[in-house]
Specification:
Length: about 220
């Protein structure tokens, strides 16, 4: 089998999506840490359009953008499938993955970067509405096992770890067991899956990074 390399950055939830998928699939790979202030020739060569991580290199082929990479891994290594076999269920999974990419990350980034006052109040309101949709319609009270986890969970997995750092940086707690009980339970279950639990960045280091990034 052609060798697999992953170009990533220690604090990137997008890179961790790929790490989790590779681990769940049992695929051996070489991880290469990127310095995003001094991007390597390897990164610029294999992702000349966006010049961002993650980038998966499989033999002489390079794939960029985390969700595109997840689809490539799923199709290239169909063992331990992370998408449903039923066509309708697979379509619904892609719907929620797209929802996460187009709605969740946009609104949550606005919340993360919002200034105190009217701007932050608006961002909080929009973020809470998105959380309600996820709570009631997407993840619900799903129970996890190594076999049950799927690409929807992986795509939204940053909520289980990175969002807490965002809340702390902003100084506002939105997601807890009282406000969103099913989503909170999903987060706790998700973080107990071995492939996830064993592959997370240092919490204190990540929180410090989030606070620095918010000031930029």
């Amino acid at each position: 089998m052609a060798g697999v390399k992953l170009l990533g950055f220690w604090a990137s939830s997008f890179a961790y999506r790929v790490i989790w998928t590779l681990k769940l699939k049992g695929i051996n790979y070489e991880y290469i840490e990127e310095d995003l202030r001094n991007k390597s020739h390897l990164l610029l060569h294999h992702n000349p359009v966006h010049k961002k991580v993650p980038v998966l290199i499989h033999g002489d082929k390079a794939v960029a953008e985390s969700l595109v990479i997840l689809e490539y891994i799923e199709e290239t290594w169909p063992e331990n499938p992370l998408l449903p076999t039923d066509a309708y269920e697979r379509a619904m999974a892609r719907f929620w993955i797209n929802f996460g990419e187009s709605k969740v990350e946009c609104h949550f980034f606005q919340f993360f970067k919002s200034a105190a006052g009217e701007e932050q109040e608006k961002a909080i309101k929009e973020t809470v509405e998105i959380l309600k949709i996820i709570e009631e319609q997407s993840l619900g009270d799903k129970k996890f096992s190594e076999e049950a986890i799927g690409l929807v969970d992986i795509a939204l997995g940053w909520l289980a770890y990175w969002f807490e750092g965002q809340e702390e940086a902003v100084g506002t707690k939105l997601l807890n067991s009282t406000t969103f009980p099913r989503l909170h339970a999903w987060i706790q279950n998700f973080k107990q899956v071995p492939a996830i639990k064993e592959n997370l960045p240092d919490r204190q280091k990540l929180r410090a990074h989030s606070k620095r990034f918010r000031r930029v």
